[in-house]
Amino acid sequence: MDSIADMGGVLGYGPASRPMADEPPFAEPWEGRAFAMTVLAMGRISGRNLDAFRHALERLSPLDYLADGYYGRWLNAAELMLVESAVLAPGAVDTRVRRDRGEDVAEPAFPEPRKPEYAPSAPGSLREVADPPRLAVGQAVVTADVHPRGPSKLPAYLRRRRGTVTAVRPAHVLPDTHGVFVGENPQQVYTVGFDSAELWGPDAEPFRLHADLFDSYLAAVTGTEDS
Amino acid sequence: MTERLSPAERTAALESLLVERELVDPSVMDGFIGRYERDVGPMNGARVVATAWTDPSYLEWLRKDATAAIADLGFSGPQGEHMVVLEQTDEVHHVVVCTLCSCYPWPVLGLPPSWYKDPAYRSRVVREPRAVLAEMGCPLPDDVGIQVWDSSAEVRYLVVPQRPAGTEELGVDELAPLVTRDAMVGVARL
């Protein structure tokens, strides 16, 4: 989806931070609670549909995505999914905070849950597909011209770009449909290599960029490889 | 604009609501948090790397089927369904990112560190990796080529750093503590 979550190539976030040795997994106790609660609650409402959770993350407003960091966005995405499946009423979390502060507020009643229809065909994201891989290592490809309003794992900076298949990976469930509960539609995944000048122009730092892309994002092109 | 409630307060509120609905059990949450604080972290990946450094047949297995080779040391689970290793050399430096979220190989490295989740890293390492690595304390010689890996599906990458000089006599137990998280993502060299 064209969203705050699709960050590749965006400028304005400042310099990268220096790693700290022995950084703990959770900077503050609430981060660990938000992490565990999100993983467990997602299991209850969506059968661990990770793609649906990622789609909830990318549907957050930029402020809700960024303001409280990684576990803040997990918390906000979990709340979004819980409200959408009517496990919680809209505003229930904020009202509970105010009640916990001692304010005299009426809490909304728990609604009748409307969980999405969801039955994964197997655990995890990898699946077998009947057809052999359509593309071979070394095949020149061009990525799709898409402007998705729903989930997609084709980052904006890799759309309409020429690259070369560098590895054939196992088939995965397709996030574009799986993430909105309309089917797994597993597809072959390929690692595709791009020359940096194809992505960022002739003055780019020289390097190779590899990304893991679904079959339907790629069209084979004839002719020479991209570099 | 309405007041932004703190994430600590909102987390506590959500927990109390889900406990009332009997959707989460705080003791299960405690166990889950403890697992990622104590048992699942970069010491697992360090074990994989140190084993690869000392056992050529294990390295060969890692190259052919990293998922199985890593599981053989006891490391598997969510965010490690299909593992691939990338080997640093004198000529090539690999660095891993997830521009779309913060996908990371949990079974071998644990939960991602703050810099990996930082928009500054996610946005720019796919555009000017040499500059970003220098900012992070990992300047690379001009003759080292850079390969950036955007984990945009469910493949998860583990970088195998080069074995430091002068460690030829050491075994797995002595080598593993030398292997850092940052080197296994590719933002540091050993």
Any chance you could write out the topology, listing elements then pairs?
The complex is a heterodimer of chains A (about 230) and B (about 190).
Chain A: H1 29-46, H2 50-58, H3 62-66, H4 69-84, H5 92-100, E1 126-127, E2 140-143, E3 162-172, H6 175-178, E4 187-195, H7 196-200, E5 208-214, E6 218-220
Antiparallel strand pairs in A: 1-3, 2-3, 2-6, 3-4, 4-5
Helix pairs in contact in A: 1-4, 2-4
Chain B: H1 7-20, H2 26-39, H3 42-54, H4 56-64, H5 66-72, E1 82-87, E2 92-97, H6 106-109, H7 114-117, H8 119-124, H9 129-135, E3 145-150, E4 155-160, H10 172-175, H11 181-185
Walk me through what this model shows.
Chain A: It is an enzyme of class 4 (lyase). Chain A: This is nitrile hydratase. Chain A: Belongs to the nitrile hydratase subunit beta family. Chain A: It comes from Actinomycetospora endophytica. The complex is a heterodimer of chains A (227) and B (190). By secondary structure, chain A is of the alpha+beta class. Chain A has helices spanning 29-46, 50-58, 62-66, 69-84, 92-100, 175-178, 196-200, and strands spanning 126-127, 140-143, 162-172, 187-195, 208-214, 218-220. In chain A, strands 1, 2, 3, 4, 5 and 6 form a six-stranded antiparallel β-sheet that branches. In chain A, helix 2 crosses helix 4. The longest helix of chain A is centred in the first third of the chain and has 18 residues, at 29-46. The two termini of chain A are 29 Å apart. Chain B is an alpha/beta fold and 190 residues long. Chain B folds into two domains: 8-38, no CATH class; 42-185, Nitrile Hydratase, Chain A (Alpha-Beta Complex), CATH 3.90.330.10. Chain B is built from eleven helices and four strands; from the N terminus they run H-H-H-H-H-E-E-H-H-H-H-E-E-H-H. Chain B has helices at residues 7-20, 26-39, 42-54, 56-64, 66-72, 106-109, 114-117, 119-124, 129-135, 172-175, 181-185; strands spanning 82-87, 92-97, 145-150, 155-160. A two-stranded parallel ribbon of chain B has the order 1-4. In chain B, strands 2-3 form a two-stranded parallel sheet. In chain B, helix 3 packs across helix 4 (56-64) and helix 4 (56-64) packs across helix 5 (66-72). The longest helix of chain B has 14 residues, at 7-20. Chain B is globular. In chain B, 50% of the residues are buried. The chains are: A alpha+beta (227), B alpha/beta (190). Chains A and B meet through helix 1, helix 2, helix 4, helix 5 and strand 3 of A and helix 1, helix 2, helix 7, helix 8 and helix 9 of B.
